Amino acid sequence: MTSASQINPAERILMGPGPSSVPHRVLRAMSAPTLGHLDPQYLAIMDETCEMLRQIFRTKNALTFPVSGTGMAGMECIATNLLEPGDEAIVGVNGVFGTRMKDVMERCGAKVHAMEQTWGESFTLTQISGALEANPKAKVLGIVHAETSTGALQSLEGVGELCKKKGVLLVVDAVTSLGGHELRVDDWGIDAIYSGTQKCLSCPPGLSPVSFGPKALEVMDARKTKVQSWYLDVSMLRKYYTGGGGGGRVYHHTAPINMTYALREALAAVLEEGLDARIERHRVLHLRLRAGLEKLGLRYVPSKSLHTLNCIHAPEGKDEALIRHRLLEEYGIEIGAGLGPMAGKALRIGLMGHSASVRNVDLVLAALAELLK
Amino acid sequence: MTSASQINPAERILMGPGPSSVPHRVLRAMSAPTLGHLDPQYLAIMDETCEMLRQIFRTKNALTFPVSGTGMAGMECIATNLLEPGDEAIVGVNGVFGTRMKDVMERCGAKVHAMEQTWGESFTLTQISGALEANPKAKVLGIVHAETSTGALQSLEGVGELCKKKGVLLVVDAVTSLGGHELRVDDWGIDAIYSGTQKCLSCPPGLSPVSFGPKALEVMDARKTKVQSWYLDVSMLRKYYTGGGGGGRVYHHTAPINMTYALREALAAVLEEGLDARIERHRVLHLRLRAGLEKLGLRYVPSKSLHTLNCIHAPEGKDEALIRHRLLEEYGIEIGAGLGPMAGKALRIGLMGHSASVRNVDLVLAALAELLK
User: Fold this and answer.
1) If both were cysteines, with which of A175, B136, B219, B327 could A196 make a disulfide (CB 3.0 to 4.6 Å apart)?
2) What tens digit of pLDDT does each residue of A46-76 get?
3) Could you tell me if the ipTM is greater than 0.90?
């Protein structure tokens, strides 16, 4: 496939749990000439990127920027900055990413109370309220909006109010929902949120958009200990990204310049389509795919499925690995395997961003019909 | 400069402390179609990238890979994995990056002994030996090969032997030397090393190549505590990058796919030129620039200058910020300001990778001659 000096990756249709297919305009923007990270032109591009992120997160939070790492770096950025050793937190655990959030927060020295739910199910307001009552010392409640491992959608309406009443910060994983599902950071009272670029934004992986609200800022300003990660320390990052803290912009680390170009272009594409129209497109195409899959006798794992990721039980009596292999080799379509305890038992079909099209839905259904014969 | 949907960054000549100018072939490779991070084609590209990194680090270390973040993420990856709370370390502090390494290691809970030297000077073997004698509990000695803030080159020959005698791990910052200066990881007994892509490799920023030797692996395998960073935890990363630890490749986080394409192409360019020839090019062009700068009456800050970064005292009686501004605006040339305590007092002219050419050296000298009239 490759020679010493050139790569020629196949033109896959990416319908796994991410990355999604990247539009040509984004790849083209990414290959624009590299600027220095303190060049006024670059700072202007970054400012525009942050402003577009605010629109897509539906927030006025000044501290909204892309962390220089993939989605998990965003999770770690929020955990390390909000938590100090000895703090307590509650994390909703109903899949791989809730499990990871608990692990990440524990590594910050926090005592983490797991709020558990069957994988594939979501949390009710009653259950969340109960967890808040049971853990009165909790500083943070962490919850996954779109659990990529099970395909379950978590409703967030009302959660912010419950947290606010208890003085608890609401932290949300929106890696697989930003730009594909309804998400209202300010209206829903979310205090800190992270996402990835390679899912519903259809930008290559490499950045993790985050946003911190005023209460999160207060908590960070009141820290007694240094953030354990220098790379992710928001007290320094904010001086670079927003000039916040006085004294104007201060160099921290070298930002991933060309990735920022790509993200800016991907966000421009989202805003040109219109956020509402884009969310509706994901809904309609999910219903189209769902109808087709059910017609093939395939069943969904979660009770309340994401539009952006369709997690189905592996077809009985068939080799799920072979199905994925043949989709990749014969059709150039990537779909995902089950993750964690669901390895070998599930298939995950992503409908994210640029990959979410009538063309792709009908193709993957035709291909599956052929392979399941 | 920008419209809502398109960026058109200026074609700068990047002669600051990094990023350096990126060759078109690297930008083109970066914009190849995005693959999934578990696609066999992508894994092959990553394997090739790691193999080329081994050649350029001059190491046989199996655990050699690009961390998914910029250079400082590599520093943090090594510190968090090698150190546990209560450990002791020695760090050479003679500039901004040594100061940072001390900070990063302290955030890991280590007690860090600063081995200090005047900024612009380097450490002698006698001084290093003395620091090792004085701190018998040290587990790690950290030192910066190419101190980007002062332009000083640190000789590393013999340092590994001193560390080995004391059973201390040698950790090296090679952000501004990899691919531009002589660097022999195995021959010099370096146990762990990190670099960046955007300096002498002339790839956009976004990845941090690291390499861990056998003794570093032993120390990591013997850890009593979890690595405080999930994102940078080598015990998990190695399962993805090398399939190490048994059980084949395991998904950890979504790697920055297109950045890996770019790095692979940048490394191919290094190997096509030949590592020795490239290092010699940096040396020759440094001498050419140095002769020209001294003819203009400009003086170097460090006693022993890097070839890749030329740190000079700001010209007396001139506004150094205006010189940088005019170079950028009138010539499209970026050079760097002084960093930290040297802000306003120094200029930093990078000659790294693709930016290190006769054309650029003679141009920047001509431009400076004009601006210093």
Assistant:
1) A175
2) 999 999 999 999 999 999 999 999 999 999 9
3) yes
CATH number of the CATH domain containing A69 = 3.40.640.10
Length of chain A: 373
Q: Is A343 on the interface with B (CB under 8 A)?
A: no
Cβ pairs bridging A and B (under 8 Å): 240
Sequence-distant (6+) residues with CB within 8 A of B334 are: A36, A39, B12, B13, B14, B15, B16, B327, B328
B-contacting residues of A 217-246, CB under 8 Å?
A: 226-231
Chain B within 8 Å of A5 (Cβ-Cβ)?
Answer: yes
Tokens matching residue A288: 């189209």
Rg (CA), chain B: 21
Claim to verify: residue B344 and residue B203 sit in the same structural domain: no
Residue of A nearest to B75 (CA): A231
Does residue B309 sit in the same domain as residue B194? no
Q: Which pTM value belongs to this model?
A: 0.97
Domain limits for position A299: 13-19+274-371
CATH number assigned to the domain comprising residue A327:
3.90.1150.10
Whether the link from the prior residue into B19 is cis, omega within 30° of 0, is yes
Q: Check residue A2 and give its pLDDT.
A: 42
**pLDDT tens-digit readout, B91-109:** 999 999 999 999 999 999 9
- Total tally of structural domains belonging to chain B: 2
Q: How far, in Å, CA of B6 to CA of A282, rounded?
A: 25
Q: Which residues of chain A have pLDDT under 50?
A: 1-3
Same domain for A38 and A148, yes or no, is yes
Same domain flag for B199 and B83:
yes
Using the 3D structure, point to which of B216, B246, B270 is the last residue of a domain: B270
